[in-house]
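pls design
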């Protein structure tokens, strides 16, 4: 006659706590490494380039002979280069649309001037958020137009997570949340507190799990 072993709830809880603790600490380690990489990358970008919005906030700009214009046509926002339509975004109307400057297109289109500090070379960046209604960062898609001092225009299309290091800089300001290249954690509210609290939760889980395992082993020893 075979007998079945009683279900050991304490052992199951200890295993789950140990697993949860290991996962939480792994997450903390991953985001700590990524945050360090992000800060090093951002520091390098800031040393090499400067970024600023044009002093003239008007929706019509001319950069080395290339005319850039943003305007609204009904429920659509259009971007033109040299009076040729290059991009179109569907966006709901708002009270901000009554303004005559770029504030009317906040979160949809933005202008930036990028300058390489060592050489003095400049580029004009017109960036669009093609998904202004998207809430999740992972759902965002963008389109940028980079104009150099010779008037040559290069277009980029990308989504969050597939952008290059410089493209990360070009789209900053289009969303309320500041996005990073390696991770967005350093730009969120209380990033250190988030990592510390997650690490503490992981250590507590490991500690309690190990205590339960130790108590189970002690019970087995006494029973023997």
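designed seq:
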């Amino acid at each position: 006659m075979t007998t079945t072993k009683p279900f050991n709830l304490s052992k199951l809880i200890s295993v789950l706590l140990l697993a949860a603790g290991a996962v939480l600490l792994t997450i903390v380690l991953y985001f700590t490494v990524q945050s360090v990489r992000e800060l090093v990358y951002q520091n390098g970008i800031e040393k090499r380039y400067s970024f600023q919005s044009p002093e003239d906030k008007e929706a019509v700009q001319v950069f080395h002979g290339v005319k850039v214009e943003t305007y609204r046509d009904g429920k659509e926002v259009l971007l033109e280069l040299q009076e040729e339509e290059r991009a179109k975004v569907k966006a709901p109307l708002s009270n901000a649309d009554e303004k005559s400057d770029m504030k009317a297109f906040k979160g949809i289109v933005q202008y930036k001037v990028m300058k390489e500090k060592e050489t003095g070379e400049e580029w004009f960046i017109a960036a669009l958020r093609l998904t202004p209604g998207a809430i999740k960062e992972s759902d965002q898609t963008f389109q940028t137009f980079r104009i150099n001092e010779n008037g040559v225009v290069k277009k980029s299309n990308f989504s969050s997570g597939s952008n290059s290091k410089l493209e990360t800089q070009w789209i900053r300001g289009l969303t309320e949340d500041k996005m990073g290249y390696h991770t967005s954690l350093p730009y969120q509210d209380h990033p250190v507190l988030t990592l510390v609290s997650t690490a503490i939760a992981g250590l507590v889980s490991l500690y309690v799990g190990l205590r339960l395992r130790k108590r189970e082993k002690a019970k087995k020893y006494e029973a023997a």
